[in-house]
Design goal:
Blueprint (H helix, E strand, L loop, with lengths): L2 E4 L2 E8 L3 E6 L20 E6 L16 H15 L4 E6 L1 H12 L4 E7 L7 H7 L4 H5 L3 H10 L4 H13 L11 H4 L5 E7 L7 H10 L3 E6 L12 H12 L5
Parallel strand pairs: 3-4, 3-5, 5-6, 6-7, 7-8
Antiparallel strand pairs: 1-2, 2-4
Helix pairs in contact: 1-2
């Protein structure tokens, strides 16, 4: 798995296939390999770029700080390293929030994107859930749960503790995810918003708000879908819709 120095940390990533560049950004506490549970094989006709975001998986984060705005700049730095000027992208939860920052900061670099379980800001439900990621909660994990986390985040318990602290920080974060109507209007990428109508963290109204704010947006509400409704039995339908959207067609 290649690595490159990006904005003060080592970012690990994979590049596979040939064709248009497609950036896949995973969710919080996740890793790039999570996309294999959505795409059993890489979409044909694409050069797939799959990083571990800062502090996740094999990537480091020695400074400890994390914002979604910074994460977007990390993604651009990776694209610069690979010589990619313009990209299509899919982001899940944390990855989707990163793409919101990317699409507003450098709109000319994103041709089309899919936002899964995104939000313009943190509602109370998310803040309450994030506040539960305490050091004590980490210590209460079972041996099996710790083993699973260590397999995914390979730099040891200190890395996992840092991810807990990152998640907990969202409970008191008010400026990183605070997109206004004017900011959302900057996005020029054709955007598909995918949202579960049973999302416990981001009410479906937040997806509707993004739909009204982003100029070239389409909205797919997944019936009975929870947060990140793209895994398991829901994956095949998501793959069809996402690829059709990226290709500029309707499915």
């Amino acid at each position: 798995m290649p690595t490159t120095s990006v904005n003060g940390f080592e970012m690990h990533y994979e590049v596979r296939g040939d064709g248009e560049s497609l950036l896949l950004l995973h969710g919080g506490m996740g890793i790039g390999d999570d996309w294999r549970h959505v795409f059993p094989s890489d979409p044909p006709g694409y050069r797939v770029i799959v990083p571990d975001l800062r502090g996740h998986g094999r990537s480091t984060n020695p400074g400890g700080a994390f914002t979604f705005g910074q994460c977007a700049q990390d993604a651009f730095a990776l694209l610069d390293h690979l010589g990619v000027e313009r990209v299509k992208a899919i982001g899940l939860s944390m990855g989707a929030k990163t793409l919101l920052h990317a699409g507003t900061a450098q709109p000319e670099r994103i041709d089309a994107m899919v936002l899964v379980s995104a939000t313009p800001r943190f509602p109370d439900a998310l803040r309450s859930a994030a506040a539960q990621f305490t050091p004590e909660a980490f210590e209460r994990l079972s041996d099996g749960e710790r083993h699973t986390l260590r397999q995914r985040h390979v730099h040891g318990d200190d890395q996992v503790r840092a991810l807990y602290a990152m998640t907990r920080s969202f409970a008191a974060s008010y400026d990183d995810m605070a997109f206004t109507w004017e900011q959302l209007r900057r996005i020029t990428a054709r955007t598909l918003i995918v949202h579960g109508d049973r999302d416990p963290y981001y009410p479906v109204e937040m997806a509707v708000e993004l739909f009204h704010g982003i100029p070239q947006a389409a909205l797919w509400i997944v019936p009975y879908g929870a947060h990140g409704p793209v895994f398991g039995a829901l994956a095949p339908a998501f793959v069809r819709q996402a690829i059709a959207h990226l290709e500029g067609s309707r499915n």
